[in-house]
Amino acid sequence: MAGRLTMYTTTWCGYCTRLKSGLQRAGIDYDEINIEEDPTAEAFVLEANGGLATVPTLVLPSGEVMTNPPLPLLLAALQPA
């Protein structure tokens, strides 16, 4: 992978916690950005999700954006083409 996986989260998001645990079990490294602490990150998430602050929002190394994906779908998207 050329870049790293980036996950936009909040501290209270159960979906974020579950997805982070799944990624850790799968051995996938990622950068985490809390949108409650970073206004620029919050603006990105709002833009990516039609004005909704939906997390987890992920940016894959390819640049593709996924919102709250199931772990198997995310893992498949991270596989090399």
List the SSEs and their pairings.
Layout: E1 5-9, H1 14-26, E2 30-34, H2 39-48, E3 57-59, E4 65-67, H3 71-78
Parallel strand pairs: 1-2
Antiparallel strand pairs: 1-3, 3-4
Question: How many domains make up the 3D coordinates?
Answer: 1
Distance between the termini: 10 Å
Radius of gyration in whole Å, from Cα? 12 Å
What best-fitting shape do the alpha-carbon axes yield? globular
Total count of helical runs of at least 4 residues: 3
CATH topology heading: Glutaredoxin
Widest beta sheet: strand line-up: 2-1-3-4
Explain how this protein is built:
β3 (57-59) and β4 (65-67) form a beta hairpin. The protein is globular and about 30 Å long. The longest helix is centred in the N-terminal third of the chain and has 13 residues, at 14-26. The N and C termini lie close together (10 Å). Helix content is 38%, strand content 20%. It has helices spanning 14-26, 39-48, 71-78, and strands spanning 5-9, 30-34, 57-59, 65-67. It has three helices and four strands. It has a four-stranded mixed beta sheet with strand order 2-1-3-4, with helices on one face. The chain has one domain (9-78): 3-Layer(aba) Sandwich (Glutaredoxin). By secondary structure, the protein is an alpha+beta fold.
